[in-house]
């Protein structure tokens, strides 16, 4: 019997276009979502570009037109994205500073009404300043472009502003640093909603493999070792990321990569700086890390679900990558 097609989960995305919009703040993150829609069918991102004016001059002098009015209502489950703005656009200004200030005030007022529990807010670059003026970052961890960190601290004195971060995920508040960091933030959103395999496929398409994680200065294990363009290694890495729990021997991955086991081992060490086995274990530990921080499963169940033969094997692999044991991490992240 043919099973009915599963209805995809739809995530409406409202992209707020401010005056002097920094075009890469919009194009980069939205290319991530466009490609994510092409890579899988479980989740669909739909984009609407909104703002107080039907057109805006951009950072590079290109006019952005067809902007819809700021909506009266944003549905539950939506993602509102605010891009940054350039202080001095390339070429002549399309509007005066006074007109721009009026448009920014309209965005701030709208944000105060539109953002509520059930609606996530993501800011790119200096877009965090508009969210701060609306009081939406108070009590939250957040970041912005390094040049606007002092201004964000002044605008959101009750926020916990973090420097040296590509992005910060604080529940329903997502903030990113300057410009291309918006791509990293949206890859994080795709990984959360559509899975790590999809995020990795999009990252590969955009050629942005070697990126730091949002929460700390360490490299994300899901993207570590991806700063290369070798197709055979990518085939093997994609297979491991899609199913880390499978019994991935060097020979099995060599079949996937269309290479000999000896050649794959050589290529892995040369292009990723680690062995095939080390890479597989890193992916499994990354998956275990998610179970530790986001579930109440005991270590035996986590070991089973992440492809380790025993909790002893999991703890041994974990200790090679983390200074603290899983129990300490779980205690630190436990809610009240």
CATH fold-level label of the largest domain: Rossmann fold
Largest sheet: 7 strands, mixed
Helix content: 40-55%
Note the quaternary state here.
single chain
User: What's the CATH H-level superfamily name of the largest domain?
Assistant: Class I glutamine amidotransferase (GATase) domain
Describe the structure.
- The protein is elongated.
- The chain has helices at residues 23-39, 97-114, 127-133, 149-155, 181-194, 196-206, 231-242, 250-257, 261-272, 276-294, 299-305, 311-321, 326-333, and strands at residues 9-16, 43-51, 56-57, 63-64, 68-69, 79-82, 120-123, 141-142, 160-161, 167-170, 173-176.
- It is built from 13 helices and eleven strands.
- The protein folds into two domains: 9-196, Class I glutamine amidotransferase (GATase) domain (Rossmann fold, 3-Layer(aba) Sandwich), CATH 3.40.50.880; 228-336, Homeodomain-like (Arc Repressor Mutant, subunit A, Orthogonal Bundle).
- The longest helix is centred in the last third of the chain and has 19 residues, at 276-294.
- It is of the alpha/beta class and 336 residues long.
- The strands form three sheets. Strands 5-2-1-6-7-11-10 form a seven-stranded mixed beta sheet, sandwiched between helices. A two-stranded antiparallel ribbon has the order 3-4. It has a two-stranded parallel sheet with strand order 8-9.
């Amino acid at each position: 019997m043919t099973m009915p097609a599963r209805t995809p989960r739809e995530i409406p995305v409202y992209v707020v276009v401010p005056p002097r919009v920094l075009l890469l703040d919009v194009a980069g993150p939205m290319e991530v979502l466009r490609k994510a829609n092409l890579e899988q069918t479980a989740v669909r991102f739909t984009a609407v570009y909104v703002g107080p004016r039907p057109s805006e001059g951009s950072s590079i002098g290109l006019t952005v037109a067809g902007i819809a009015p700021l909506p009266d209502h944003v549905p539950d489950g939506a993602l509102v994205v605010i891009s940054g703005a350039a202080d001095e656009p390339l070429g002549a200004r399309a509007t005066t500073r006074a007109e721009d200030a009026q448009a920014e005030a309209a965005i701030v007022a709208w944000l105060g009404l539109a953002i509520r529990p059930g609606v996530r807010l993501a800011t790119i670059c200096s877009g965090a300043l508009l969210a701060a003026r609306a009081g939406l970052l108070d009590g939250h961890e957040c970041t912005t472009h390094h040049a606007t960190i002092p201004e964000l601290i002044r605008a959101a004195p009750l926020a916990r502003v973090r420097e040296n971060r590509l992005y910060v995920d604080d529940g329903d508040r997502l903030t990113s640093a300057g410009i291309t960091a918006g791509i990293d933030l949206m890859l994080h959103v795709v990984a959360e909603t559509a899975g790590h395999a999809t995020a990795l496929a999009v990252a590969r398409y955009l050629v942005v493999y070697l990126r730091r994680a949002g929460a700390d200065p360490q490299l994300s294990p899901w993207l570590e070792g991806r700063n290369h363009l070798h197709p055979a290694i990518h085939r093997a890495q994609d297979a491991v990321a899609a199913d880390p729990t499978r019994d991935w021997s060097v020979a099995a991955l060599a079949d996937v990569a269309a290479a000999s086991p000896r050649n794959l081992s050589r290529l892995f060490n040369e292009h990723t700086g680690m062995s095939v086995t080390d890479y597989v274990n890193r992916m499994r530990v990354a998956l275990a890390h998610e179970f530790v921080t986001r579930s109440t499963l005991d270590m035996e169940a986590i070991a089973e679900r992440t492809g380790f033969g025993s909790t002893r094997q999991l703890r041994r692999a974990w200790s090679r990558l983390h200074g603290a044991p899983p129990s300490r991490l779980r205690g630190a992240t436990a809610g009240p």
